[in-house]
UniProtKB/TrEMBL annotation:
Domain of life of the organism encoding this protein: Bacteria
Species lineage: Bacteria, Pseudomonadati, Bacteroidota, Cytophagia, Cytophagales
Gene3D superfamilies tied to this protein: Immunoglobulins, SGNH hydrolase
The keyword Hydrolase appears for this protein: yes
Alphabetical list of InterPro entries matching this protein: Ig-like_fold, SASA, SGNH_hydro_sf, SIAE
Domain named Sialate O-acetylesterase: residues: 90-335
Pfam entry (one): SASA
Protein name: Sialate O-acetylesterase
Keywords assigned: Hydrolase
Amino acid sequence: MHTAWAVSVPAIFSDHMVLQQKAEVTVWGSAKAGEPVTVVGTWNNKPVTTKASNLGKWSVKLNTPDAGGPYVVTVKGYNTIIINDVLIGEVWLASGQSNMEWSAAAGIESAEVEVPKASYPEVRFFNVAHQTADGPQLNLQGDWVVSTPETMKHFSAVAYFFGRELHQELSVPVGLINSSWGGTPGEVWVSPETIASDPVLVEAAAKQKEVEYGPSQPGKAYHAMIAPLIPYHIAGALWYQGESNTVAPEAYETLLPALINNWRSEWGYEFPFYFVQIAPYKDYGPYAGALLRDSQRKSLKVPDTGMVVVSDIGNNDDIHPRNKLDVGKRLANLALNKTYGKENRPASGPLFREMKVEGRKVRLYFDYADKGLVSESKALPNFEIAGEDRKFVKADARIDGNTVVVQAKSVKNPVAVRYEWSNTVKPGLFNKAGLPVSSFRTDNWPMQQ
């Protein structure tokens, strides 16, 4: 075979892959300029033909049916590529830093129970190898594998537990693409042009120091580990990252929406984007953890997003909490509720919505608290209140239905409230689904990071 003329496809198209159901999916690759290329899937046996461009690139769109398989996809030009054991179902992209990358092999709670039972023939994994690049790449390293105890052990634990829950609830194949890298700041996962277009992002990116364990410059992972996946059709994206952005925590309120919009723009549609709020941890700067978590909460202003709060299953002494099962399940419940319409699944813990001053008291209102709030103690911990002098004092707080009433004897005219405003917290307020209230502040006063 004349290799210079050979038709090829990127690594994301391989045996055992999962294609998004009921969608117009794109298949693409390279070939000799002008070469006719035909792609056909056995679910309908309808060939789609195109010609490689003068740059030697081609792409076609295939319409996929309801979930099912296995099928075969054939790509034919000068040579023939046969992709076997193709399933059609739900495809999710998981990305972020070490807490998303963390695997059972690295050590998780309940590994001895969960690893042996990880045989799910219709759950598939694609692990993207760590790479960097100075410009958008056309291919990456990785291949699709079937979920087994051995493959699950080395895959993202959060993504696996998420995918397993979807598979069991929806009874469809699930494809999980893990493109994450421990220790990386959010800037490396965004296009450099996006960072350069906003002075807030430029200033925050400049605070990132070079480290030996991964890239820190804008776009380096995006170019090599995200761009080559576009436009592989995904149902949505999962994100667990932020620990490395505590050097500029307030800028994350700009950075995360910029990342979401950047990815959606490149993919060409607004897929759901669900993320994990970082867990409390003792070694951040004075209030950096609280500020970062609040920036994540504020990022929910972006449409079709959701946030999982994990303050109750974190570890103040370990930046890598080992309970990944509940993180994955909470992400799955969020997706099952908001994306798949399973209203019986709890979408979120309570999120602060607004405050109203009632004389010397403040009443706090929350989303996702319709059925009421609960606490182990009558007097709620972790609330602070301040007047116009901006001096916060410990507040007396109590639940009143699905609201919280806050006051302090020394504050006659309250103007601001904070909840769980420290790097290390032990949550004391939940909704009836057992999910914790996100930390928050009602003020925007400058403070030490």
